[in-house]
Design brief:
Number of strands: 11
Number of helices: 3
Order of helices and strands: HHEHEEEEEEEEEE
Distance between the termini: 24 Å
Structural class: mainly beta
Strand order of the largest sheet: 1-2-3-4-5-6-7-9-10-11
Strand content: over 45%
Shape: globular
Helix content: under 10%
């Protein structure tokens, strides 16, 4: 069984995560199980009304969405697998249940060898995995997981388009265990230097593991319904 991607990236830091987060991020390819989270986002989406029509143009990518809401139910599935290029990976498939309809938001985080040894994380977003970003993860002094996206780029056919720092939107994420509620909590903000807050989601959820049934995931692969429309090998 291949190691979990967050264990590979965090290395010795992993043991400093809260025990509940260690359990959450321990899902590894070949384990025979996948993770299911169900909860409520206190806030989710784009708060800036003027920006929503522009984000709507990318709705088909299933990486961003123009809606905004409060107290919105959601469901997440985590599938640990080996991607088609042999990299250990974790695919997250989110269903956000807005009153107007359900939005899908999914990505695949892969562990790739780092230049100085160890592993780094690369995140491929959306149904076509065309938007790619480096993900830097660390553990806070109180055992939370913190993630910050770095340089982003688009892959459109053979063309690689690196976004300059002045245009690139960065994601700032934090996940922790709420002892008082007995639930996982997550907060993510996507900020673009020129326009400010582009996307936010923050909420709480319960989480459990479930076994794959009837060959839904073969070996270290993904169940078909969780696969993207296209894979991207380039990082």
């Amino acid at each position: 069984m291949t190691e979990a991607v967050y264990k590979l990236a965090l290395a010795d830091e992993y043991e400093r995560l809260a025990p509940e987060l260690q359990d959450y991020f321990a899902l590894a390819p070949g384990s025979g199980s996948y993770g299911i989270g169900q909860g409520v986002f206190d806030v989710v989406g784009c708060r800036q009304k003027w920006l929503r029509p522009f984000i709507a143009l990318t709705g088909n990518e299933e990486a961003f969405f123009p809606e905004y809401g409060e107290n919105i139910p959601f469901r997440i599935e985590n599938h640990a697998h080996v991607d088609p290029f042999g990299r250990p990976a974790l695919t997250a498939r989110r269903e956000i249940q807005f009153p107007s309809g359900t939005r899908l938001f999914h990505d695949t985080t892969s562990a790739v060898p780092g230049a100085g040894g160890g592993y780094r994380l690369v995140d491929h977003l959306g149904r076509y995995r065309r938007l790619v970003t480096d993900l830097e993860v660390s553990v806070t002094p109180n055992g939370r997981l913190r993630g910050v996206s770095k340089a982003s780029r688009f892959f459109l056919g053979p063309v690689r388009i690196a976004l300059p720092a002045a245009l690139d939107a960065k994601a700032y994420a934090e996940q922790w265990w709420d002892e008082a509620e007995g639930k996982h909590r997550i907060q993510v903000k996507v900020i673009q230097p020129q326009v400010g807050l582009v996307l936010v989601y923050a909420g709480r959820f319960d989480y459990r593991l479930a076994p794959y049934f009837g060959g839904a995931a073969s070996g270290t692969g993904l169940p078909r319904y969780a696969e993207p429309d296209r894979w991207e090998e380039r990082t």
